[in-house]
Structure formats: structure tokens, C-alpha cells
Design goal:
By secondary structure, the chain is of the alpha+beta class. It has one helix and five strands, in the order H-E-E-E-E-E. The termini are far apart.
Length: 128
């Protein structure tokens, strides 16, 4: 009788371990969270056509942060050659998990005098 109880206990333990380990392996891989999208508006300060990036002094961005100076990438479909320093930009700011910032749905409008980057309020202790 003792050997039957011992075997039963071992088999039960083996089944429990198999189920526990199997449950850990069967988990779905984590899915990357979707990128955040925020309405964005600002004035172009500089343009890097080779990198498809522009530096913009922007207003407060709901869902992202306070006004400041930001370098963002523009999508391939955006014609950087039509952008000029001083143009006003309205777009959707896309913030990816890897902290890459991209502008989509870009609308460039006439000239606005470039603002002085030092006049934009920035959070204390944070370099832009």
C-alpha cells in the first residue's frame, strides 16, 4: 500500500509540474503597445532634408508635454523640400515605444517669424 501511495504522489507531482511549466510556456508573447498620437502645432526652426527631420518650436502638446524645442522625423510621403524655416506646421505627432517621434498628416502653412528658442518655457533640469 505504501508503494502505491508513493507512486501516486510522484505521478501527481509530475502532472502538477508539467501543467505549471506548460502554462508558462504557452503564454502569448507580449504585443507592443500602440504608438501614441497627439495633435501638434509649431514653427520650423531648422530642416535636415537628408535625415527627413525638422526642429520645431512647438506649443503645449496634449498627451505629450509642455511647449518646447523638438526635433522630429517626417514621414517619407512628406515633401521636406516645400518646408522653410519659419513655416507653421500642423500635424499628428506619433510617439513610438522606442521614443522615436514622427510627424504624420503634415500641413505646412505660410511664413511665421521664427521664435527665439530661448523664449520657450522648459521644465527645470531638462535639456532639450
Amino acid at each position: 500500500m505504501k508503494s502505491f501511495a508513493g507512486r501516486f504522489a510522484r505521478i501527481l507531482l509530475l502532472i502538477l509540474l508539467t501543467v505549471t511549466v506548460g502554462a508558462g510556456v504557452a503564454r502569448r508573447p507580449s504585443v507592443a503597445s500602440p504608438a501614441r498620437r497627439c495633435a501638434f502645432r509649431g514653427v520650423i526652426q531648422s530642416i535636415d532634408a537628408n535625415a527627413l527631420a525638422i526642429t520645431i518650436i512647438h506649443d503645449y502638446v496634449e498627451g505629450y508635454g509642455p511647449a518646447g524645442l523638438l526635433t522630429v522625423h517626417v514621414g517619407d510621403s512628406t515633401d521636406v523640400s516645400r518646408m522653410r524655416v519659419g513655416n507653421t506646421v500642423r500635424a499628428t505627432l506619433v510617439v513610438h515605444d522606442d521614443r522615436k517621434l514622427v510627424l504624420e498628416d503634415v500641413v505646412v502653412s505660410g511664413g511665421s517669424a521664427p521664435r527665439d528658442p530661448d523664449s520657450v518655457p522648459r521644465p527645470a533640469g531638462r535639456r532639450v
